[in-house]
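Bumping with the actual sequence this time:
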Amino acid sequence: MPRLPFSENAIPAFPAAPPVILITGEIEFFVEEAASVAARKFGAEGAEVLKFDDESPAEAVSDALLNRSLFSARRVVQCDISRLLGSESPGKLLDQAVEAWEKGTPAGRREAFRRARALLSALDLAAGSSAEELAEAAARKLRRKPREETLATILRELPEEKGGPGAVRDAIRLLLERGNDGTVALLTAVSPPAGVDLLVEIARKGLVLDTVAEAGTGQALGRLARALAKEREVSLDPEAVERLLFQTDTNPEVFAAELEKLLAWAGPGGRVRAADVRENVEDESSEDLYALYDAIGRRDAGDALDRLERVFSGRAVRTGNWKVDTDDYWPVRFFGMLSDEVRRMLLIRAWQESAGSPEAPASFEAFKVRVVPRLAQPVSPFDRSPFQSRQGQITPFLWFKAAARAARYSSRELGRALARAADVDLKLKSSVAPLDALSVYVAELIAGS
């Protein structure tokens, strides 16, 4: 079966489900959240759902996978197999285990145990040795002597595991061969590396659902923020979440990492405000040129000049969802885009004034119905509309936005701004500092001078 983005609709009904379903992603919260959705859906169909945590014996997991339920014709076995697939380097696993342990919470303790087991598996260290011997060997191999004492403490507390990960791996493979005969494995894995044999087998004979697309939405990251803040007993202002989304450019991994730092900084009983995000999180957000155009349309000089500076700050620049190449001759190319927008504003504004309807369009639908047909009328002696593209088409939303941005200007003001474009273009191609020349141009445009 194909590898698909996760959604509730992507989860098949139990009778049609493959024997193994694997839910993956870069952030554990979304992987576990998606697995819970799938488990509830199967449970609503009458399936018995058995969920095994990280401390469950491998022997119990493999038995549940291979044996039929005594109480239901349908069984779902839910467990995490990140350790079987591998996800992090041994050094990172050690660091994560120690950091999780130092949180001092039940969730941190469980995470530390999971990372420690994965570490022992990655280093192929015999589980039968003492905690001190295992910690010493791991610290020596990874050259992390300062971590040895804490790792030894974790390993002393680590619940005994019967069987071993190999038993679970073999059971999954047998289930893949046997097919869905009343048992479905609902598995999860965080950041599994591509090309691992078991992952390839599941993708070929089972179903892999990826949570990456869902995790990249503001709504999903907001859920993550609220859940982690509640778990850490930290008050998190809604404005702080919005600010963090903005400054991390809604990048799930960056958002999650910075959120962890903020919650640790605030501590139990603390509070995170938008100002704290501004102060403690580096602004990695991209800049949308359309937002700059809108600021110019509002004649908001402060916002427009701030956004202009961001356009040349080295951050990613986009137009909507499209990334803009800012490598070669960017100031000149940017000004070409800006002057094109001023030209569109002038054209639609002049038409509105001549048509006796200078007010801003009430809505896109009204603009499309009432205005666009008039814009499409050909003008003599050219026998075509000046609003048409080179392909002879009119893009209604493009002209709607231009009309909205031009509503606070007169055609005379926009005409003066366009007349200055050639001089600005010459300055950009000379030794004049590009941002200075562009800032003056934008300021004069907004001032109407």
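The tokens above came from a reply further down the thread. The chain has three domains: 1-213, 218-280, 288-447.
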